[in-house]
Amino acid sequence: MDPSVAPLGARNFRDAGGLPAAAWRADQTEQTLVPTHCCFCGVQCGMYLRVDGHGKVFGVEPRNHDINRMRLCPKGINAYQQVNHPDRLTAPLLRRDRNQPFREVSWEEALDHTVEQINRIQQEHGRDAFGMLGGASLFSEKTYLVGKFARVALKTRHVDYNGRLCMVSAAGANKLAFGIDRAANPFADILQTDCLLIAGANVGECFPVLTQYVWGARDRGATLIVVDPRETAVARTADIHVALKSGTDSAFFNAVLHVIVEEGLTDEAFLAANTTGWAEVKAAVKAYPPSRAAEICGIPAEQVVEVARAFGRAERAMGWHARGIEHHTQGVENCLTVINLCTATGNLGRPGAGYGTLTGQGNGQGGREHGQKSDLLPGGRSINDPAHRRQIAAIWGIDESELPPAGTSMMEMVWQMQRQEIRGLIGVCNNPFVSLPNYAVVKDGYDKLEFHAQFDFFLSETAANAHVVFPVTVWAEDEGVMANAEARVVKHNKAQEPPEGVRTDTWVMCEIARRLGVGSKFAFEGSRDVFDELRRASAGTVIDYYGITYDRLEQTGGLAWPCPSLEHPGTPRLFEDGRSYHPDGKIHLQVVEWHPPADPYSDEYPMTLTTGRTVAHFLSGNQTRRLGGLVEQTPRPWVEVHPSHGFRNGEPVRVVTRRGSEVLPALVTEAIRPDHVFVPYHWPYPVAANELTIDALDPRSKIPEYKVCAVRIERAGAIDPVPAPPVPPGREAYPEAQVSRTDPLPPTAPQGRGTAERG
C-alpha cells in the first residue's frame, strides 16, 4: 500500500514507512490562522482559529503553546462552533412586562429603556436598589469595567460575579495564609514532583489537558494521591484513592497532618523560619488521630497513615485542589488544611514542591483580581481600606466619598431581590437560573425584580426571564486577556468581526454610562484602552499587571503576575525566598476544626448528593448544550448510583432533597460510594441539579455548599424531559443539537469503573 495515498488510519504509519501528513493540502484557499486561547476552563489551552477568505471562523487547530502542546479537549475542539451559530443573538430584545413576548428592537430603544429604568428605580428606592452581576469568563478588561461601571455609573454597592460560585474559598484561604491570591506554582512544576496530591478535582473531565502533567509526573515515578468520593478517571490511575465521604475533607487533612507530626516528618527548620501559628495548628491536629478520621470520613484508618507517609517522606510534594473541597460551608477551612500540610512539610517555593488551585472558568483567576468582586477594587485592593479607596478614586477621577462601600455576595443578592431590597439588575456573562443553588429561591428572587437586563450572545435561561437582552460578542470577536490557573496572563486575539447588530460588552457598558451622565469616565475605544487603565490601577499592588502589555504577551506566550515593570520577567513561582506577601513575610498557618455540613442527614434523607461537571459540557451549559457533537456525547443529566441499590442502567430514579425532586436515568457504577449519588449540573429546570442543592454559604467566602446535601433516592416512572435551550423569538432550536437531547439513557462514555453497558 502506498503510504502517500493510504487513507488515514488504514495501517500503522510506522510500518508504512511514510509521513502520514506529507501529502496533505489545505482544502480552502485564502485561509488565515489566528493564534488565541480556548474560551472555556482555567487551563487556557492555546489554539488557532481558522478563518476563511470572507473573514469567518470555520474551524480550529491545536497550537503548540507550552500550556497544552497541541492538545485540546472536546470542548476546545468544538468551541469555534459558537461563533457563527444559528442561535446567536443579533438584535436587542425587549419586553416591558414578563407576561409579554420579547420583540427585537433597535439599540436606541433598548438603551433608552434601560437607562430610564435605572433612573426610576434609583430615584424611588435609592442607588443600592440597583445591582450588577458579572462573570469570570469575561476578559479581564471587561471584569475591570464591570466593577468600575457598577461603582461609578450605577453608583451602587451591589456588584458581584459568578466566580463567587467557583474560586472564592481558595482565594480566602490563600489570602489568610499567604497574603496573596493565586497558585504558588506553575503547571510545569507538577512534572518535577515526587508526590502529587489532587483533592476534589476531577482533572480528567474538568481540566482534561492538565492530565498530561499528571501522567508526566507518574511517568517519572511520582506517587499520585487522589481525594474524591468518586473514582474519577484520574483516581483510577492513582497509587492511593481516598474515597472519603463528601464534607469531611478538613477532618481528613487534619488527620494526615497528625500522622506527619507524630512520625517526625515535618520540616521544623522551615516552619521556624517562615511561619506563624504552627504551635497552635500542631496542638489542634492532636485531636484528629486516624481512628477519628476513619469514623468521620468513612475510610480505613490505615489509608490516612499511607497518605501521610507518602506525602511527608517525599523530597518534593505538591497539593492541588478544586471545587470538590471548596464548595462547602467550610470551603475556606478545607483549603487551609491543604496549605497547612504543604507548609508543615516545607513544600513551598521550589520546583516540584508547592500548592495550587485549579480554576474552573477561563478567567476564574483574572476575573476576581480587578474589582467586580463585592469587596475588592482593582489590583486586589480592599474596598474597606481608606488608602486603597483613595488610590482608585484618583485613577477613576472621582472623590473617595463617591465610592460605595462593600456589597454582598451573589447568593445574598438573590435573597435581597426576594426581599425587594434590590429591585433592578444588570447581568453580564452569567446564568444563575442554572448555576446558583436552590433554583426555587433563585427564580423567586429574579421574578421579583422590577427590571432586569442581561448581556449574552445566546439566550440563556436567565436571559429568557429578563426585560432587556443585549446581544454581545463571543470571545473570538474581541481581544483581551485572561489569567489562567497558574496566574499566567495570556492574550486572546480577535478572529472575526461580530455579526451586524452585535456589540462588545465594553461598548454597551460605556454607552449606558454615557447616557447616565458619566461618559467622560468611560471614554474607552476598546479593550486596549481599558487594559492600559487596568495596568495603571494595579501598579504597586500584589496583583501588579503594570509590566504586562499586549505586545509582551504576544512575544512570550504569557506572563505570570506580579509583573511590576516592563523589564520584569513575571513571577511563575511564588515564595522562592521563603517570604509570603504578608507585611511580616511569614506564612500565617490557621487552626481548622471540622464541622458537619449544613444539610442534616435523617431517616428520610440518609444519603449524600454531590454535584459536578462532565467532560462534554461547561458550567451552566448555555454554550455547550447548543453544540451538536457535545450534545451527542452527553445529551442529558443522569444520577450515578452504586449497584448495591438495585437499579439497572437507565432505570428512572427519583432524587429527592428538602428543596425538590427530579427523575433521572440511573448510571450504575461501582465508582461511587454506596452512600452517595452524583448528578452533573449543566442543565436547567426541571432536570437541574441545582433544583436540589442547598443555598447554605461558607461564612467567610460566601460560596454555596454544592458538594454535599442530604438526599434519598427511590424508584420512579417517567424520566423528566430535558428542555431545549431558549432561542430568540421567531426561531426554532438548532435541530442538530436536539436529537440526542431526547435520549432517555445516560451517556455511552464510561463515567467510572463498573459502569453498566447500554442496551
From TrEMBL:
SMART domains: Molybdop_Fe4S4. InterPro entries: Asp_de-COase-like_dom_sf, MoPterin_dinucl-bd_dom, Mopterin_OxRdtase, Mopterin_OxRdtase_4Fe-4S_dom, MopterinOxRdtase_cofactor_BS, Prok_molybdopt-oxidoreductase. Residues 359-383, 719-759 are annotated as: Disordered. The keyword Transmembrane helix does not apply. GO terms for biological process: respiratory electron transport chain. Residues 31-87 form the 4Fe-4S Mo/W bis-MGD-type domain. GO terms for cellular component: membrane. This is Nitrate reductase. It comes from Kitasatospora cheerisanensis KCTC 2395.
